[in-house]
Design goal:
Blueprint lengths: L1 E8 L2 E6 L3 E6 L3 E2 L8 E7 L2 E7 H4 L12 E7 L2 E7 L1 E8 L4 E2 L7 H4 L2 E6 L4 E5 L1 H5 L3
Parallel strand pairs: 2-12, 6-8
Antiparallel strand pairs: 1-2, 1-9, 3-7, 4-5, 5-6, 7-8, 10-11, 11-12
């Protein structure tokens, strides 16, 4: 059994392994970074540590968030660095069985499939397991 912190992006359910998630935040002020790649939304100060903020919608080639729609942050550790991922909504922690794991669905666009480890069939939904290291690689 594995546990995933879940979140929603564009009405689809995604997950990151619990052991890679440091915390979940809402409403943290960000600082823009001039001339940065469009996936980099800015920087956030988390208790004195400057953390890069990556917009997963842009990284997964999804449509932009509606104007005024508040996003949330999932702070993860990837390659020894803290990175904050911008998501639409936070879900809960889901426990999944390895037997329910499948390759990424063929219906996903190729560029998105590269960032998805695979999918878990849940009773009420499909959980797309995000490859954190690839998702935070910008550029």
């Amino acid at each position: 059994m594995s546990q995933y912190v879940t979140f929603v992006l564009n009405d689809a359910l995604y997950g990151i392994e619990v052991n890679k998630v440091q915390e979940v935040l809402k409403g943290v002020p960000t600082t823009n970074v001039p001339m940065s790649p469009e996936e980099i939304t800015g920087l956030v100060n988390l208790r004195g540590q400057v953390v890069t903020l990556v917009d997963l919608r842009k990284q997964l080639n999804l449509p932009s968030r509606a104007e005024g729609e508040e996003a949330m942050m999932v702070v993860v550790e990837a390659d020894g660095e803290m990175i904050s991922l911008l998501v639409d909504k936070i879900g809960d922690v889901r426990e999944v069985k390895e037997a329910d794991f499948e390759n990424p669905p063929d219906t996903l666009p190729v560029e998105m499939r590269e960032l998805i480890l695979g999918a878990y069939k849940l009773q009420d939904n499909l959980l797309l397991a995000l490859d954190v290291e690839k998702a935070v690689a910008v550029g």
